């Protein structure tokens, strides 16, 4: 899909499809080195992480298992409260496994802080994080993020798995929406 297919919904592209592809490749190479000789289980956080999980995993040379969780954060409006409910739990027992959580965005960091605590209580060998985008508020929570695709400023983004009202996830790039979209 091209920016022009969105009519005037798109404001601007922040990260292009090519930039996403090469960053996934670079990070996959780091992961291949870091996990050489080790078990690796990728855990994607639904729904947003579907694109990055699919692309990252295909750049990895390391044989890895994959599983998914779906969680729901409760908060006023667009603000994550950090109170999280599991909508879909893992199928795989992560005891003694090396888990790499895969996310599209870490914004307030509250969802991932909760998730890391939850997964650590299950006795994994390790839990690390890869996020395609990190926003500035994530620095204010106690969250160690091992792999970061891009640091972006604090504005709402869509595309590459990220939605506004469940739309725009299928854009192959990451961008911002025109103000009129939020008004409609
Ligand atoms: O750092 P935080 O402020 O907690 O926000 C990040 C979370 O918000 C988004 O998920 P969302 O709840 O929108 O669900 P989705 O993945 O289905 O879009 C995103 O995929 C992260 O899971
Ligand atoms: O900027 C964002 N876009 C889409 N979903 C999100 N969830 C947290 N931050 C964002």
Write the layout of secondary structure elements.
Layout: E1 10-15, H1 17-34, E2 41-46, H2 50-59, E3 65-74, E4 83-88, E5 98-106, H3 110-120, E6 126-134, E7 147-151, E8 174-177, H4 179-183
Parallel strand pairs: 2-3, 2-5, 5-6, 6-7
Antiparallel strand pairs: 1-8, 3-4
Helix pairs in contact: 1-2
The structure holds 1-O-pyrophosphono-5-O-phosphono-alpha-D-ribofuranose and hypoxanthine.
Number of domains: 1
Parts with pLDDT < 50 across at least 5 consecutive residues:
none
Helix count equals 4
Indicate the CATH topology: Rossmann fold
Identify the overall geometry: globular
Please give the radius of gyration in angstroms: 16 Å
In terms of structural class, how would the helical and strand content be classed?
alpha/beta
CATH level-1 class? Alpha Beta
- In percent terms, what proportion of residues is strand? 25-35%
As a percent range, the share of helical residues equals 10-25%
Largest sheet: 6 strands, mixed
Organism: Halostreptopolyspora alba
GO cellular component, one term: cytosol
Keywords: Cytoplasm, Glycosyltransferase, Magnesium, Metal-binding, Nucleotide-binding, Purine salvage, Transferase
GO molecular function: guanine phosphoribosyltransferase activity; hypoxanthine phosphoribosyltransferase activity; magnesium ion binding; nucleotide binding
Report what the structure shows.
By secondary structure, this protein is α/β, with parallel strands linked by helices. It has one domain (17-153): 3-Layer(aba) Sandwich (Rossmann fold). The chain is built from four helices and eight strands. The chain has helices spanning 17-34, 50-59, 110-120, 179-183, and strands at 10-15, 41-46, 65-74, 83-88, 98-106, 126-134, 147-151, 174-177. A six-stranded mixed sheet has the order 4-3-2-5-6-7, with helices on both faces. Strands 1-8 form a two-stranded antiparallel ribbon. α1 (17-34) packs across α2. It binds 1-O-pyrophosphono-5-O-phosphono-alpha-D-ribofuranose (PRP) and hypoxanthine. Residues 105, 107, 156-158, 162-163 line the site of hypoxanthine. Residues 45, 47-48, 73, 80, 103-112, 163 line the site of 1-O-pyrophosphono-5-O-phosphono-alpha-D-ribofuranose. Pathway: Purine metabolism; GMP biosynthesis via salvage pathway; GMP from guanine: step 1/1; Purine metabolism; IMP biosynthesis via salvage pathway; IMP from hypoxanthine: step 1/1. One of its GO terms (molecular function) is nucleotide binding. Its cofactor is Mg(2+).
